Amino acid sequence: MPFSLHFSPTPLITAPSPLSKPSFLVPYYHTLHAPKSPLCSSMEHALTHQGKQEAFDLRPEDSQTLPLGLRRDAMPSHVAVIMDGNRRWARLRDLPVRSGYEAGVESLRKIVEICCKWGIKVLSVFAFSSDNWFRPKVEVEFLMSLFERGMQEDTGIFFRENIRISVIGDLTKLPKALQELMVNLEEATKNNTLFQLIVAVSYSGHYDVVQACQRLALKAKCGLIEPSDINVSLMEQELETNCTEFPHPDLLIRTSGEFRISNFMLWQLAYTELYFAQSLWPDFGEAEFLKALLAFQQRQRRYGV
Ligand SMILES: CC(C)=CCC/C(C)=C/CC/C(C)=C/COP(=O)(O)OP(=O)(O)O
């Protein structure tokens, strides 16, 4: 299948206006002005050499056969996932915790491929919550290295398959190299149109609402808006999901048999259909995803009307 390359090896990032991010995010924006990082070069490498993985078997959407019973006209545009149960998966097999997370990445890759094939436009995944910083240091460091490795290894795929990557959350807390990788990848893939993967890292619903309020307060303080102007639409313009055309997930899937939202996208989930799967995330594959989508397509969404 033909794919579009929109990658510019030295992404042009213009200086943000003082209002584009609140002051507590300024250190993050400083990283944008750093000289071209070696991570940019790794993207160039991934483009000129075949990446680790083979490209997906993607054909134009219309010629893709959907599994029996799944309707294209009722497909969710945006699916959000709480990828729970990685450590339990590892413990059940007497494996180290890191094997559970690694298996979780493989599961994520499979689900991304399926979304591309079945015409889902956006997938948001809760990869690391604001509370996960309190996990053992060695585990946190492993996860950071896994994000870096995962994103580097798949850079080629993102370009070949026309996939846009967006990262939401308080990135200032991440290691500098990872921040740069994420910012560069977001910038370099921002015109890709087949599918958007939103990775929530150092993210919580509370964080998102608070940072949006801070940005609105700053605009009011500078006289750009009146406090009475603040409404749902202005609020949504400041939430981190302003990176996507479909900011409200249609379907939220949580794996591992837990029935909680755990501070994920609290505002955005207002009318989302919830689906809880028993499988641990590394076991969540095509059959389970299909079950969730079929269940979603049975739901009647009334939006309170
Ligand atoms: C590159 C990229 C985006 C990678 C994503 C990697 C990944 C699967 C992250 C999930 C992290 C996480 C804290 C899951 C929660 O389940 P848990 O592991 O805490 O499971 P438990 O409930 O069994 O303890």
Secondary structure layout plus pairing:
Elements: H1 26-30, H2 38-48, E1 78-82, H3 86-92, H4 97-118, E2 122-129, H5 137-160, E3 163-168, H6 176-189, E4 195-203, H7 205-221, H8 232-238, E5 251-254, E6 273-276, H9 286-298
Parallel strand pairs: 1-2, 1-5, 2-4, 3-4, 5-6
Helix pairs in contact: 2-5, 3-4, 4-5, 5-6, 7-8
Bound molecules: farnesyl diphosphate.
Structural account:
By secondary structure, the chain is α/β, with parallel strands linked by helices. Helix content is 39%, strand content 12%. It has helices spanning 26-30, 38-48, 86-92, 97-118, 137-160, 176-189, 205-221, 232-238, 286-298; strands spanning 78-82, 122-129, 163-168, 195-203, 251-254, 273-276. The chain has a six-stranded parallel β-sheet with strand order 3-4-2-1-5-6, sandwiched between helices. Strand 3, helix 6 and strand 4 form a beta-alpha-beta unit. The longest helix is centred in the middle third of the chain and has 24 residues, at 137-160. Mean pLDDT is 85; it is low at 1-53.
